[in-house]
């Protein structure tokens, strides 16, 4: 079994697919020691009591365990998050854009979500995630089955020049490099990015889905998936070799430090909660990293836009008058001209920020 702490670490690409969280599990099989490396969140969400490496511990502070400060009571506020309400007649969909990882301070214990989000959860007989919790139980095995080879197949997929870039990137982690040789390019892409962003300090236990389930299951219990595990895995396994190489090539464009900066910026924008701003930022980044515009567009179509259409079809099949559905999917699926919010508008829904 993968190291449990290692399996919590994750990366930027995982605002698109819940199954990507499983890639950290697979990654932990390769080099548990490397994946156990922690990191410090941005200053705005630094865990209480944490200090950066190489700095002196903070001075002793007055005990405020009763929830007060020198100026009076204080209460941590949850982030805004991308949250929208879509209505058509008596049919209501609540839509929350998720990150599959986060920091503890993203979900204050006394109130993990804003009140409108909690009220929507309470009003919804059904919580719809990308993949049902039952499917996720079996996802580790499928990622390994479809993403890895007995042979050193990555060398067969890549031209020598690209393999040399992979070697250079992973030179400081020979155990991980040895295992990357046995991956297909789509999985190698995910893992290279994961290794690059280890020090961002994100944990899957503070992913939005996990936190939603903790709240939702206390009072209700019907949680469904908008796609099957096989459908989400197939999103990657059915990419052509050229498309998979494009994914990996994009991950090798920037330095590890630049990739870390990106995942922190994604997290910052998610906390603000504007789905269109999030998607615009990601689109601009995609344009900058694309090695082949045509291949990059075809990957986005399969990984993002085809799934957006699937999500909308499935959520509408679940929805019924006077029975709201709370939908929680990767934040980058919501915004933009081909995002879930716009697709709902085209189906006659009125979509408003929550």
Automatic annotation (TrEMBL):
InterPro entries reported in the protein's UniProt record: TAT_signal (IPR006311), TraB/PrgY/GumN_fam (IPR002816), YbaP-like (IPR047111)
Alphabetical list of Pfam families matching this protein: TraB_PrgY_gumN
Keyword Signal: yes
Domain of life from the UniProt record: Bacteria
Signal sequence range: 1-33
PROSITE patterns: PROKAR_LIPOPROTEIN (PS51257), TAT (PS51318)
Keywords: Signal
Keyword Signal belongs to the record: yes
Region (Disordered) residue spans: 46-80
Protein's recorded name: GumN family protein
Taxonomic lineage of the native organism: Bacteria, Pseudomonadati, Pseudomonadota, Betaproteobacteria, Burkholderiales
């Amino acid at each position: 079994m993968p190291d449990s702490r290692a399996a919590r670490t994750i990366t930027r690409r995982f605002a698109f697919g819940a199954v990507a969280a499983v890639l950290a599990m697979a990654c932990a099989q390769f080099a548990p020691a490397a994946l156990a490396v922690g990191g410090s969140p941005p200053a705005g969400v630094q865990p209480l009591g944490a200090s950066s490496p190489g700095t002196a511990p903070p001075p002793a502070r007055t005990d405020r365990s009763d929830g007060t400060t020198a100026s009076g009571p204080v209460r941590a506020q949850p982030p805004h998050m991308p949250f929208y309400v879509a209505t058509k007649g008596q049919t209501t969909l609540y839509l929350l854009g998720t990150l599959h990882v986060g920091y503890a301070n993203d979900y204050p214990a006394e109130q993990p979500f804003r009140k409108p989000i909690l009220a929507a959860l309470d009003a919804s007989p059904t919580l719809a995630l990308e993949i049902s919790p039952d499917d996720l139980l079996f996802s580790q095995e499928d990622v390994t089955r479809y993403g890895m080879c007995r042979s050193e197949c990555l060398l067969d997929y890549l031209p020598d020049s690209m393999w040399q870039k992979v070697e250079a990137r992973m030179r400081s982690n020979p155990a991980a490099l040895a295992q990357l040789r046995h991956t297909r390019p789509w999985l190698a892409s995910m893992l290279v990015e994961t290794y690059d962003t280890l020090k961002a300090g994100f944990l899957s236990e503070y992913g939005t889905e996990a936190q939603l389930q903790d709240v939702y299951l206390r009072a209700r219990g019907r949680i469904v998936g908008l796609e099957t595990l096989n459908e989400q895995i197939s999103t990657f396994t059915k990419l052509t070799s050229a498309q998979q190489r494009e994914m990996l090539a994009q991950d090798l464009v920037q330095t590890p430090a630049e990739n870390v900066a990106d995942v922190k910026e994604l997290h910052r924008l998610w906390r603000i909660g504007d789905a269109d701003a999030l998607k615009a930022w990601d689109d601009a980044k995609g344009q900058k990293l694309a090695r082949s515009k045509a291949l990059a567009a075809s990957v986005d179509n399969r990984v993002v836009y085809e799934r957006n259409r699937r999500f909308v079809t499935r959520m509408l099949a679940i929805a019924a008058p006077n029975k709201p559905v709370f939908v929680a999917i990767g934040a980058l699926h919501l915004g933009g001209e081909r995002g879930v919010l716009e697709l709902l508008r085209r189906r006659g829904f009125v979509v408003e920020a929550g």
